[in-house]
């Protein structure tokens, strides 16, 4: 029986397993690796803080999630792969309310990112403020 996401150790295991899959994905892996290069440890630390804040209510992430994505060569097909790997990872490791919330939050954030990216692509003069 799988447990729910309850601690920072759970968040680390979720994030590490997920980005392990992301890095190996033929479509989205190279996009991450090109931008992040040798900064994977920092990126993972940041993502622990992000999900710790979102899921555990422990406010360790102070940032703006969208701007780093604004100029990436990504569209809904990339987000579909990202979300598929995220759902797969959450389901493999956890079960419960927080696990469901992790999937729901990612779905919502991805939808918001896609809306913004498509908007900026169609309005080349506009620049993301936040
Ligand atoms: C195919 C889809 C995605 C790609 C290619 C992508 C890629 C990236 C990259 C390259 C960075 C910047 C890393 C750096 O330079 O340090 C980043 C940061 C981040 N991503 Fe994504 N991402 C994707 C989807 C998502 C989704 C769906 C979420 C939310 C659930 C998300 C949340 C974040 C957050 C919170 C950061 C840190 C922002 C900050 O600097 O404070 N990403 N992502």
Short synopsis of the structure:
It comes from Niabella digestorum. With 130 residues, this protein is mostly helical.
What share of the residues does DSSP label as strand, in percent? under 5%
CATH architecture: Orthogonal Bundle
Write down the CATH class: Mainly Alpha
**What is the number of beta strands?**
0
Bound molecules: protoporphyrin IX containing FE
In which range does the helix fraction lie?
A: 55-70%
- Give me the CATH fold name: Globin-like
Specify the number of helices. 6
Number of domains: 1
For the largest beta-sheet, the strand count, sense and barrel status come to: none
Shape assignment = globular
Our measurement of the CA-to-CA distance between the termini, rounded to an integer number of angstroms, reads 41 Å
CATH superfamily heading? Globins
Helices and strands: which structural class?
Answer: mainly alpha
Mean pLDDT: 95
Rg, nearest Å: 15 Å
Keywords: Heme, Iron, Metal-binding, Transport
InterPro entries: Globin-like_sf, Globin/Proto, Hemoglobin_trunc
Protein name: Group III truncated hemoglobin
Structure description:
The structure is a single chain. This protein is mostly helical. It has a single domain, classed as Globin-like (Orthogonal Bundle). Helix content is 69%, strand content 0%. The chain contains six helices and no strands. Helix 1 crosses helix 2 and helix 1 packs across helix 3. The longest helix is centred in the C-terminal third of the chain and has 26 residues. The chain is globular and about 50 Å long. Bound molecules: protoporphyrin IX containing FE. Protoporphyrin IX containing FE (HEM) binds next to helix 2, helix 3, helix 4, helix 5 and helix 6. Protoporphyrin IX containing FE binds next to helix 2, helix 3, helix 4, helix 5 and helix 6.
